[in-house]
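User: Please predict structures.

Assistant: First:
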Amino acid sequence: MEKTLVNVDGAAQALRQFAEERDWHKFHSPKNLVMALSGEVGELTEIFQWMSEADSLGAATSPKTSQAVRDELADVALYLVRLADVLGVDLNAAVSSKLASNAAKYPIELSKGVSTKYDQLPKP
């Protein structure tokens, strides 16, 4: 049985209802949702753009940035969930499959502590 890593059913249903109540579902094409998602990722990126590495580690707890970080992370998550729902993609299955694929591409013994891309790792 597949382990549940991501359960977004409630959020997907709430977002579907939110869009339907406003007659927005007609605007929620995959193209439009991807563009909106990209915009929200850009807004999240902007928060971190000129921070030091140390400041970026505390961005979610800093009084100056914590609310903005939470808001933009929520926007990214909401658009991602809505996009997956519109496309009929099971995010739990997709995440589970991708983690398994990444584990195969990045075996611990070859990738631990290094940032080398999988196709540049030494062959076992």
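Second:
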Amino acid sequence: MTQRSSTFLPWLITGLSVLAMCALGYWQLERMVYKQQRLASIAQKSANESLSLNEALSQQDPRDVAVVFEGVPNALNMLMLDNQIHNGQVGFDILAPVKTNLGWILVNYGWVKAPNLSRSLPSVELDSGLQRFTGVITRPEKNPLVQETNTAQFSYPALIQEINVEMLSKQFGHGLSTYVIQLTTEDPAFIREYQPVVMPPEKHLGYAVQWFGLAIAAAAIGGFAISKKGRSNA
């Protein structure tokens, strides 16, 4: 094997590693810009007065818009979103479909603490009468790591791993809006802390700097090691 061929593979591995780390760094920068734009949009929308559900959903991007509306909850079809953390404690987000003048929409009532660590569900009661709701519009994001496996034996209150509107619509028997209302008024039965952006832009910038730093280090260490090995074989 010639010296050139013996160093090709190490250079290839080093080059691909550096490219991968740079790609991750650029991805973090893109996330930083997205979060900055999202925060600016949230600040602008939060400065406006609350809208009706019809006015809010008619906007091009109704996310984070404050709304006030009336509706009748279907308390029998309660959903409990699993693995929700608040101040280091495991719990559930409680959701239920609410019938409005625009049809059915999921409402997130807030977080409740898990009763224990044995996977038992908390006891929650929801009023099924006509109510006035105040909250903000959110849109659930699909988690590619989650696959619902309990659809064949779906019973209420239902424990879910993600808010899959399409699947829930089929189970519920009525079409649901693709948006979810996160309630924001105080309620002693729930903890309501609307946090649309969990990771701030500054953190993404820090991760980007780390990835670019690792890329530089990998290029320097790999290049030095390969060059040293080449000289020793000369």
